[in-house]
């Protein structure tokens, strides 16, 4: 891997460029930098979620995901480098199956809300989708392995499921169930 940061205020980006992990420089609005920024924002949202009361197993899973997202960002920062492993996608698939099996089937669409932790998981879910779109866009212009895209796709699904889990955990006393969408059209029918 390339050099680690030893200082933050380098002033090398004052010209509107930034360095990649391989030492090359690109404009700060480059598609690769955009994708890296979306992944970084997602990881930051998970950091906020981790400040909430959470079931221990969910906390442990989210911490692992943060490390994997850092690997994903590292991979994006070095064109052609592989850092996020395929077993990371498999771990998300397994977590999805495990948590989905504990939940009742959805009968209606649900709204982002309920407990604060569930609402924060929904925010992270939407940022995961945005990060996925940024990686797809980058992949249309440069070579990107499928694992980063697959990981973000699975992660957004998992965050939806975890929001439902967190509402049922009700650790802040404000949740208890999903918040269901009620359409005027459904009420008339």
TrEMBL record:
Residues 1-25 are annotated as: Disordered. It catalyses: 2 cob(II)alamin + AH2 + 2 ATP = 2 adenosylcob(III)alamin + 2 triphosphate + A + 2 H(+). The keyword rRNA-binding does not apply. One of its GO terms (biological process) is cobalamin biosynthetic process. PANTHER family: CORRINOID ADENOSYLTRANSFERASE (PTHR12213), CORRINOID ADENOSYLTRANSFERASE MMAB (PTHR12213:SF0). Belongs to the Cob(I)alamin adenosyltransferase family. Homotrimer. This is Cobalamin adenosyltransferase. It comes from Azohydromonas caseinilytica.
């Amino acid at each position: 891997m390339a050099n680690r940061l030893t200082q933050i205020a380098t002033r090398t980006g004052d010209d509107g460029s930034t360095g990649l992990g391989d030492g090359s420089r690109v404009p700060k609005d480059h598609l690769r930098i955009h994708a890296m920024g979306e992944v970084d924002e997602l990881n930051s949202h998970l950091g906020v979620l981790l400040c909430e009361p959470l079931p221990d197993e969910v906390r442990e899973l989210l911490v692992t995901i943060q490390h994997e997202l850092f690997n994903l960002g590292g991979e994006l920062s070095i064109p052609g480098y592989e850092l996020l492993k395929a077993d990371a996608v498999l771990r998300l698939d397994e977590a999805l199956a495990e948590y989905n099996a504990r939940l009742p089937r959805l009968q209606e669409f649900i709204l982002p809300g309920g407990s604060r932790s569930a609402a924060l998981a929904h925010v992270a879910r939407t940022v995961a989708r945005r990060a996925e779109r940024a990686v797809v866009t980058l992949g249309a212009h440069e070579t990107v392995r499928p694992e980063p895209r697959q990981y973000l796709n699975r992660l957004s699904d998992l965050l939806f499921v975890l929001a439902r889990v967190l509402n049922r955990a009700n650790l802040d006393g404000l949740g208890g169930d999903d918040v269901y969408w009620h359409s005027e059209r459904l009420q008339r029918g």
